[in-house]
Amino acid sequence: MKIKDGYLLREVAETNVVVPVGAALNFSGMITLNGTGAFLWKQLSQDTTEDRLLKALLEEYEVEAEAAKRDLSEFLARLKAADILE
Amino acid sequence: MNKRVALAELSPLIEEALEGGKEVIFTVTGHSMAPLLRHGRDKICLVKTGGQILHKYDLPLYVRPDGKYILHRIIGVKKEGYVTAGDHQGSKEFPVLPGQVIGVVKGIWRDEQYISCDDFRYRLYSRLWVFLFPIRRFYYRFKGFLAKGAKV
Known about the structure:
The complex is a heterodimer.
Chain A: E1 7-12, E2 15-20, E3 24-26, E4 31-33, H1 35-43, H2 50-60, H3 65-81
Antiparallel strand pairs in A: 1-2, 2-4
Helix pairs in contact in A: 2-3
Chain B: H1 7-19, E1 23-27, E2 43-47, E3 60-63, E4 69-71, E5 73-78, E6 81-85, E7 93-96, E8 101-110, E9 113-116, H2 120-131, H3 133-151
Antiparallel strand pairs in B: 1-2, 2-8, 3-4, 3-8, 5-6, 6-7, 8-9
């Protein structure tokens, strides 16, 4: 799975902002991400799997595997619900 | 996941997109363009001006010297700059220089309905609203006068 084309991730005023961009830059579809969210988003710019994401997350952050797994699946569920993943 | 980010903080992104020939869509905040644009509800589509001088009735997004981002209507064009006023305001701003303008509204969404600025009804509304400006100005001043009087 990966993030669909047409999204721009930028850090603006210490916030990670994702904006849909096609012919127009649509701020009404704007998403803000925390540091972990932005980290995962970047990983998802290339085709990857949930297992690989979890591994990357555990390497990058000092967090328990169970908590990381739960947060990761919640994050992915939200991206799927917003139809951002392909 | 969704923290509010102020328009001023997004301005580099907005300017970059407009420069690149893209349109920029966002939801308006503030009440100065009511009843046309309702706070947190209606959206605008912004395009670059391409250095062109704007006309009376146009709706530019511009930045004030203090860094505030303003979306108000041009109600007059003078040699020194534009005269602007919000549709919901009785006060004018002058001069707004073409160099302060970031982009100009091409169309709006009221709820989900898109209305182009070339639309006949939109044009009629904007002309009528500018025509009524002196009356609005008088009304707001009179209201202000009464409010002051009531406090004494």
